[in-house]
Amino acid sequence: MTESQSSPLSHHSLLFLFTFFWGANFILAEVALFEMSPISFSVSRFAMGGIAMLTVLYMQCLADAKRTGNDFQFFPVVKKKDWFRLLMVALLGATLAPWMGIEGLGLTHGSRAAVWLALGPVISTAFGYLFSTEKMGKYGYAGVVLAGFGTLTLAYDGLQPGRGYWLGDLLLFLALAMTVVELHLIKPLARKYGSISMVAMRTVIGGSLYLLIASPSLVQESWLTFGFWTWFAILAGGAIGVGVGQWVKVRALRSLGPTRVVIYGNLVPVAAFIIAWLSIGENPTNYELVAGGLIIAGAILVQVLDVIDRKEPAHITDDEISVVSSGKNE
What we know:
By secondary structure, this protein is mainly alpha-helical. It has one domain (8-69, 79-322). Helices cover 77% and strands 0% of the residues. Helix 1 (8-32) crosses helix 4, helix 2 (38-68) runs parallel beside helix 9 (228-256) and helix 5 crosses helix 7. The longest helix has 31 residues, at 38-68. The radius of gyration is 19 Å and the shape is globular.
């Protein structure tokens, strides 16, 4: 059965399943950080996820070439004038963003990091609107306002005495900002060379630099002493959460359309809260619950209701489609 012939129910079932897997990735990372340094864990899972994602992208690109009859070229020849932009994309999206994201997670906790993730699409849309690269209607404005209040609530909570989350929140926000900037930088390259090729090249270049930076920390790790859940977080969190998760999203996008698919991405923080509560007894504060609700509601207004109201295709970024590794699930 081809992707187009698959039933909508199968797509929704897989997306629902992976919503919890993506949410669990944050909690698994939190558990793994008890045994590993943040950068060692991040680059290890990045490597596993990168290999799996590149394999999925390669197969997808090959299949598309056979279907359309075009020449297959996974890594295109990039013009000299575009290399600086590509290097910036790789540095921001596949080196600095996952690095800052995992360091921030080490100073907060998994479900809180997932809430910051949900803020990404709202910031991206608002940024694009200011620079005339995105359109926004009445629901979009309302969504940005709601997400803004949610952000202020989360930031206020992190500054509370005894919480000590302000530095972790700052690092997570910086990682999010880098991801947004990368998104807008990669768009012209994706239109020119293809989104799959650009995501692949960005992952290889940025991931190689990330591995080089993390190599001193990797050498110092006691790999043979790690427990089951740490290895599960590295191997399954990377290969399944990134590689297979990439295939699930792209497959669903082609059949269901982006508007329906983005809803599942917005529910990842909810899944992270539930899993953290059930698995490690992590109870969110009232501020975190309110902030999460406001940010998720804002994201749905911006990504879904505003799109439907304006009768335009939903905004799906190359990074959302490629699910990586750029820090969103790190």
